[in-house]
Amino acid sequence: MTMSDDPFAQAAQHTGAKTSGIEALQLPSDLQVAACMRDWLSRTTRADRADPDPSAAPALDTRLFAKLIAARDARNELALLGLQAHEWRALLARHFAGYFGHATMPALPQAISPSEHASFMRALHSLLIANASTAVHVDDARCLATIIVHACLRPDHLWRDLGLAGRDEVTWMLTRYFPALVALNVENLRWKKFLAAQCALSLGLPPGPAPGCPGCEDYGYCFASRT
Asked: Which InterPro entries does the record associate with it (predicted)?
């Protein structure tokens, strides 16, 4: 097998992710979101360095966060990320220095955290962090865990709730940040269903849907016994 000249494909081979998942980290098809992601990428920390290497892991992580943020920022929904103000500022300092500390830095509205789902949110966040890769920045893993947890509160497939391109992209993201959990998905379950099941098992409970699952168009398919 030959090594691709595409730096994103090389990263895919190194992480074990599908190349299509890396390619999906390019600009979204939605023009509004794509423009927003492009703007975020113009503020990246690596852009200020003398010799930025696009094949380096930090560049991939920055592209991931740019896409996650743009999906919400384009629609004035930054609160849906679930991040606290100090986490937001630190995330911008790590990846988007062109915004950090500037008057144009996007304000982060107060995170929306429904109290009725507090136990689920704490448990899933703890589960993700307990399985975080040592190859990624611990604070990036914490931020991503928070974003994923809040996405599980919304009524659609996880990739849509995150603003990503599809399952392959979610698989790449989870493989990079939480590989031990990915290895447990031997039944190839949909990611939101799988994460909810693992969360329940961590609490000694039978597997069940995530809080957002009942509103999904495929709820009857994923949880036929409950409909």
From this structure: NifQ
